[in-house]
Amino acid sequence: MSDNVPSRFSGSAVDLSALAQQQQQQAPPAPQGAGRQAPGGEPGGAPAGSGGAPSGAITIDVTDATVQSEVLERSLNTLVLVVFWADQSPESVQLRDLLQQLATADGGAWTLAKADVQSNQQLAAALQLQAIPAVVAIAGGRPVDAIQGAQNEQSLRQWIGGLAKSAGVDVPEPVDSELAAAADLMAEGNLDAAETAYDKYLKNNPGSSEADAGLAQVRMLRRAGALPQDAVRVADDDPANVDAALAAADLQVLSGQAEEAYDRLIQQIGRLAGDDRERVRKRLVELFLIAGADDPTVTKARRKLSTVLF
């Protein structure tokens, strides 16, 4: 439960189905013949095999009258976030629009339901809302959490991520547009521009493993153009040649022989001292960055390196 919202959603304290039943009772009687079999479908005109609540929508508009089908039934299959907004509250409009952007970016992993409180006061009252902006999370047919007040993208992402995990919803990791642009420059072969982009990103986001890995790839690609095809043979023939060992390791990584490359550099670190040892160690760390910390070959090589360093 979010800290800034009273814990009113425990158990069955809030029952939206009562609101839905009330709306059904207030609805005008169905036209004569509405229950007859519709061509090609189920009674009442629903398409054959529709199975109830609509699914797959990214954003919807919800009213007091549609809370049963658009929110409660839909929440049995996916996470639904209901954002309450009003034209008189610029903060609520801003939050609504930000959530709509996030819902679109997540590609329908969860559904955003937008409720105008001016037109849907019964729904807001049923959820015991005291102010807007407000967002209520619905899962399994009942409210499970809520947040109130203005929110930034980072806080919303963290909140949605926690809700999605609890609900078993797979929400994709957001793509960083700056890192994506730098990667595109690198893929196009514009290494200078890519390096500049990664450097700029690191100044604003120190310690970013993605940017560090991108810079390591840029450096690798620069060196790749000058690698001799017989770099491995040259290094094998002259084990004391540090430059040859570094070139051979690059070629082996590019050839899909990362484990052999790591072993080669670890052997060099074991026999070297001073500046040469540090130069090889830094190159090995760069190669680890390119592969990623969760690569099993990197994990194995790190264990070997620790026995040499300590």
3D structure, described in words:
Strand 2 (80-85), helix 3 (90-105) and strand 3 (111-116) form a beta-alpha-beta unit. Residues 3-14 and 26-56 have low confidence and may be disordered. The protein has a five-stranded mixed beta sheet. The chain is built from 13 helices and five strands. By secondary structure, it is α/β, with parallel strands linked by helices. Helices cover 52% and strands 9% of the residues. The protein has two domains: 16-167, Glutaredoxin (3-Layer(aba) Sandwich); 178-309, no CATH class.
Layout of helices and strands:
Layout: H1 16-26, E1 59-61, H2 67-72, E2 80-85, H3 90-105, E3 111-116, H4 121-126, E4 134-139, E5 142-148, H5 153-167, H6 177-187, H7 191-204, H8 209-224, H9 231-237, H10 242-254, H11 258-271, H12 274-291, H13 296-309
Parallel strand pairs: 1-3, 2-3
Antiparallel strand pairs: 2-4, 4-5
Helix pairs in contact: 6-7, 6-8, 7-8, 8-12, 9-10, 10-11, 10-12, 11-12, 11-13
- Provide the CATH superfamily of the largest domain: Glutaredoxin
The helix tally amounts to 13
CATH fold node name of the largest domain:
Glutaredoxin
Q: Please write the CATH class name of the largest domain.
A: Alpha Beta
User: What is the CA-atom radius of gyration, in angstroms?
Assistant: 29 Å
Mean of the pLDDT scores?
81
Strand content: 5-15%
Q: Let me know the number of strands.
A: 5
The sequence of SSEs as H and E is HEHEHEHEEHHHHHHHHH
Tell me the major beta sheet: 5 strands, mixed
What overall form do the CA principal axes indicate? elongated
**Poorly predicted residue ranges:** 3-14, 26-56
Q: What fraction, in percent, of the residue positions are helical?
A: 40-55%
Order of strands in the sheet with most strands: 1-3-2-4-5
Distance separating the two termini: 46 Å
CATH architecture of the largest domain: 3-Layer(aba) Sandwich
Classify the secondary structure makeup into a structural class: alpha/beta
Number of domains: 2
